[in-house]
TrEMBL record:
Taxonomic placement: Bacteria, Bacillati, Actinomycetota, Actinomycetes, Kitasatosporales
Pfam families assigned to the protein according to its UniProt record, in alphabetical order: Y1_Tnp (PF01797)
Residues forming coiled coils: none
Species, as recorded: Streptomyces castrisilvae
Residue ranges of every copy of the Transposase IS200-like domain listed in the record: 18-138
Protein name: IS200/IS605 family transposase
Length: 142
């Protein structure tokens, strides 16, 4: 008996698109200050999950250290990644500063929480070399 085919839960279907888009994001606080505690990281993850859900995206993984956070986000093609990043950083900065003001004030002055820059990389199941090889090996029409 052959194994039963299971649909890939990462593949989403829209009206005119089938997609599976993932982005690995890294955010650092202003001046890369060591502002994060376990409690603040936990709250940051909660906020970012809510922001993703409102954008029809999903925060698949979240982790961080004292001076940065990593996110793995699964998002639809209708979502502009830079806009999602802006929402993630803006909403989290607002609530983290409001809820942990005394602690954060020790590390950051002024209104800004996050550095204006960020790291973003596409992420998927297949390594880039494998995708390249697959495309190279496609049959050309005669």
């Amino acid at each position: 008996m052959s194994p039963r085919w299971e649909p890939n839960p990462d593949i989403r279907r829209g009206r005119s698109v089938v997609h599976t888009l993932h982005a690995h994001l890294v955010f650092v606080p202003k001046y890369r200050r060591s502002v994060f505690t376990d409690e603040i990281l936990t709250r940051c993850e909660e906020i970012m999950r809510e922001v993703c859900a409102k954008a029809n995206a999903e925060l698949r993984e979240f982790n961080g250290e004292r001076d940065h956070v990593h996110l793995l986000v699964h998002y639809p093609p209708q979502v502009k990644l830079s806009a999602l990043v802006g929402s993630l950083k803006g909403v989290s900065a607002h609530y983290l500063r409001k809820e942990h003001a005394d602690h954060i004030r020790k590390y950051l002055s002024g209104e800004h929480f996050w550095s204006p820059s960020y790291f973003a990389a596409s992420a998927g199941d297949a390594p880039l070399a494998l995708v390249k090889e697959y495309i190279e090996n496609q049959k050309r029409p005669d």
